[in-house]
Design goal:
Layout: E1 11-23, E2 37-51, E3 54-59, E4 62-66, E5 72-75, E6 81-91, E7 103-104, H1 107-123, E8 124-126, E9 132-136, H2 144-159, H3 170-184, H4 192-199, H5 203-214, H6 218-235, H7 240-246, H8 252-263, H9 267-273
Helix pairs in contact: 1-2, 3-4, 6-8
Length: 275
């Protein structure tokens, strides 16, 4: 008899944290970067999510998938938000289609998310603050962890069937435009005034926007972006002197100081350690 082999589009290989919480109306998380995936789903209210060059405001029934190594942060804006956050490692080529857009949870997907969280609460122990699940509970029925992974895989497959929405918000679009402008001019020495002029907005508007969406000033954001690109160039075997010139630093010493402040090591140490 002919056998049909099902596709294996995604496989959950590990769970890091499961988070079920209410963010207060003035919540602000400074952000983090990690080498695993994160799914954030807003059950009720609104929650802002910045992920590298995108900023989205998620409303009830909306979610985002954040890829590994993307710097991201969350905030609320005068409204409480009930959220679920799942961080995990996974393999599967379908993940290549993931973007930082907004995914809409159907009623079926909301039910799967609820079952996923309920299973997580059986499988994992609560932390001291009663929100984060991260330690395995051994006194559970056999197969609970697999059920959790299955629910998560189904939910992600349902999400990636969609074409994610782009935020229709003037402020978040302006943020993306500003980041894109800086990326396009990463090898140049540009100022706040240059970005404001290019986007036809005031300097104060840009300052306020970057403080809200990133927690830092636009100058620091651009400097951090340069250092991240410098790391790529150093891995490509360019010398510190070459990278300094390529990124329009005023001197190699200034570049080395900025690099060490950002990474904790000098450009030479970074190359030698193969970081």
């Amino acid at each position: 008899m002919h056998r049909i082999t099902p596709e294996n589009l995604i496989h959950i290989t590990g769970i890091y944290t499961v988070y079920d919480a209410v963010f207060s109306e003035d919540y602000y998380f400074d952000g983090e970067r990690h080498n695993f995936w994160e799914l954030i789903y807003v059950k009720k209210g609104k929650c802002g999510v910045t992920a590298d060059d995108t900023a989205n405001i998620l409303s009830s029934g909306q979610a985002m998938l954040i890829a590994p190594d993307k710097f991201h942060k969350n905030w609320t804006d005068n409204e409480n938000a009930e959220v679920m956050i799942f961080s995990f490692s996974a393999t599967g080529h379908i993940l290549n289609s993931c973007t930082s857009g907004i995914y809409i949870f159907s009623e079926e997907m909301q039910q799967i998310a609820s079952m996923l969280m309920n299973t997580g609460k059986k499988w994992l122990k609560l932390s001291a603050d009663d929100n984060i699940l991260f330690e395995e509970n051994k006194n559970i029925p056999s197969g609970t962890s697999q059920i959790f992974a299955d629910f998560l895989e189904i939910l992600i497959l349902k999400m990636l069937e969609q074409t994610p929405l782009k935020q229709k918000n003037t402020s978040t679009q302006l943020f993306s435009d500003a980041v894109n402008y800086m990326q396009e001019n990463i090898t140049q020495s540009i100022s706040l005034e240059d970005v404001a002029k290019a986007l036809s907005v005031s300097k104060s508007t840009l300052k306020q926007m970057f403080k809200k969406y990133t927690g830092i000033g636009i100058k620091q954001y651009f400097n951090d972006m340069k250092i991240e690109y410098a790391k790529v160039l150093l891995k490509e075997k360019h010398t510190a002197s070459e990278v300094s010139a390529m990124l329009s630093y005023s001197s190699q010493n200034y570049f080395s100081t900025a690099f060490k402040k950002h990474t904790g090591v000098s450009p030479l140490e970074y190359k030698q350690k193969g970081m």
